[in-house]
Amino acid sequence: MAERTRVVVADDSRLMRRMLESGLERHGFDVVATAEDGDAALERCRVDEPDVLTLDLTMPGRDGIAVLKELQSRRQHVPVVVVSAFSPVHGARAVDALASGAVDLVEKPGAGDSFDHFLAELA
Q1: pLDDT-above-70 percentage for the chain
Q2: Cα gap 6→28, rounded to integer Å
Q3: Which residue of 41, 60, 70, 88 has the fewest C-beta atoms within 10 A of its own C-beta?
Q4: To 5 degrees, how large is the angle CA 49–CA 55–CA 60?
Q5: Tens digit of pLDDT for each residue in 13-37?
Q6: What's the Rg (C-alpha) of the chain?
């Protein structure tokens, strides 16, 4: 039996963390930890050594871009999928995230969007 992909979920919204955790687990992932801010995300990556980190860009304290840069400076090679709300105003932040080491970007679902479709895209 293949090992399940180990994931750390970082998002400042408790509701989004819970939704991502349950949805990813339904898609066969093992969510080993969640984090409510950038510092907690870095600590969970250090301690839990996940296969992947889902990362919101807008969080209190150390934001997603700062987390990406810190992971690079530590030479901690954990693939990061940015899961955040994007808009034309935030387009530059998406480019910054990719330039800072994110491997992919997945837009959070908006009102009326299918959460199942979002999870399938994320998985």
Answers
A1: 94
A2: 10
A3: 88
A4: 110
A5: 999 999 999 999 999 999 999 999 9
A6: 13
Token digits for 30?
């093992």
Q: How far is CA 57 from CA 2, 104, 107, 112, in A?
A: 31, 13, 11, 22
pLDDT digits (tens, 9 = 90+) for 51-69: 999 999 989 889 999 999 9
Mean pLDDT to the nearest integer, 83-87: 79
Copy the structure tokens of residue 55: 């990362």
* Average confidence (pLDDT) over 119-123: 89
Distance CA 56, CA 67 (A): 10
Residue reference for tokens 């409510």: 36
Could you give the CA distance from residue 22 to residue 112 in angstroms, rounded to a whole number? Answer: 20
Helix axes 64-74, 91-99, angle to 10 degrees: 10
